[in-house]
C-alpha cells in the first residue's frame, strides 16, 4: 500500500487546507466529521398531524443512495419527492417516538408498500425497480436500529459512504478510525464540535495507516460484506402486493391486510397512512 496516494486523497476529502471558518458537520460531506449513526429525535422530524410541509427533512444515508435518490426524483413533482423522503424518515428509519420494535416493523413494512405505490404510479421504466432496491436497502438498515433504554431514542448505523466518483476500494478515514482507534475517533469528534485542533488528530492517525495495512484490508472486507447484505436481504412484508391502482384502492387493501395480521398498537400506523395519503391531496 502506497501512503502517498491515500494520504493525498485524505487531504482533499477533508478540505483541511486554508480553512478559516469554524469546522462544521454537514451531512453528506467530509468537511468536518461525518457521522455514520443518526440520532433521530421525536421533535426534529415529526410531521405535524394533518399538515405535510413542502420541504420535508432528508436523512443522509450514504453518498451513493443520496445521489441515486436525487437522480430518480429529478423532474418529479414536489409531492413525489416529499413522499419518498417522508417514507424514509417516518417509516424506514422512524424516530425515537416509536421505540417499540413491533410498531417499527409495521411502519417499515407499510413504508415499503408506500414506496411501491410511488414507484408504480410515478416512476417509469427502470426507475421503479431502482427506487424499490434503494428503499429496501434503507429498510434493512432500519431492522438494525438500536434503542437507548434510557431515552427511547433510536440509532441507525449507516453504511460507509463512498463519494460519488470515488473508486470501489475507497476507504473512509473516519470509519477506519472509529473501527480501529475508537478513542482517537472520540477525541476527533470532541475536537470538531469544540473547535479544537482536529486537523492534527486526523493527520496523526493517517500517518499510522502505512504501518497498519491490515486495518484497510479488514475495513474493505467488512464494507463489502455489509453492502452485499443490504442489497440481497429480502424482508417479509405483510403489506406486500397491495393494490396501487389508486390511493383509495391502496388504503383499502392495506386495511384489509392489516385485519389479517392485526397489531396490538395500530394508532401510529393509521396516522402514518393518513399522512401519506394527504401528501398526494387525498382525504378519506
Describe this protein with a few key phrases.
284 residues; 12 helices; 3 strands; 56% helix; disordered N terminus
Describe this structure in words.
The chain is 56% helix and 4% strand. It has a 3-stranded antiparallel β-sheet. Among the domains are: 63-159 and 242-280, no CATH class; 173-232, no CATH class. The protein has 12 helices and 3 strands. The termini are far apart. Helix 5 runs antiparallel to helix 6 (126-142) and helix 5 runs parallel beside helix 12. The protein has 284 residues and is mainly alpha-helical. Strand 2 (146-147) and strand 3 form a beta hairpin. The longest helix has 22 residues, at 101-122. The chain is elongated and about 60 Å long.
Uncertain runs: 1-54
Query: Alpha-carbon distance between the termini?
Result: 62 Å
Average pLDDT rating: 82
Instruction: Please state the overall shape, judged from the principal axes of the Cα atoms.
Output: elongated
Sheet with the most strands: spatial strand order: 1-3-2
The helix count comes to 12
- Please give the share of residues in helix: 55-70%
Instruction: Tell me the major beta sheet.
Output: 3 strands, antiparallel
The share of residues in extended strands comes to under 5%
Spatial extent as radius of gyration:
21 Å
Provide the succession of SSEs.
HEHHHHHEEHHHHHH
Structural class: mainly alpha
Count of individual beta strands: 3
Brief characterization of the structure:
The chain has helices at 3-14, 42-45, 63-73, 78-92, 101-122, 126-142, 173-180, 182-193, 198-208, 213-232, 247-260, 267-279; strands at residues 37-40, 146-147, 154-157. With 284 residues, it is mainly alpha-helical.
